[in-house]
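Support reply, case 0932

Customer input (verbatim):
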Amino acid sequence: MSFMQEFREFAVKGNVIDLAVGVIIGGAFGKIVDSVVNDLIMPVVSLIFGKLDFSNLFLTLGSVPDGTPHTLDALRKAGVPVFAYGNFITVAVNFLILAFIIFLMIKQINRLKREAPAEPPAPEATPEDIVLLREIRDNLKR
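Our regenerated output:
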């Protein structure tokens, strides 16, 4: 079997295609969660905690050149090492929200997969010889 035939068999297996679809959908879903966090949740958190913007929380680890604005983007462009813990907080919040949403989805899928409670099995039919013996018994009682 040639290398190309082996590769073609591998690439078109159901698991590989399912994984590829999952990665693509996961990437798109990640962008949706980023937008939910950055555009919907963080403004509310900022409103509650007083204009808090996690993305601009950082510590400078080196000397800042004169004239450089004290913003994360400007410091990074100037090559100043920064400890950007605010970005980590944002990514952690994104992860928690994504994990919670996936948990709810899996919980719903599992609930839908559960079968309705099975009906109790119908009693087995009584064997014919037992039925016959019962009829004889009943006839003898008369």
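We compared this against your earlier run and they match. Two observations from our side: The longest strand covers residues 59-60. The beta strands are 59-60, 82-83. Please reopen the case if you see a mismatch on your end.
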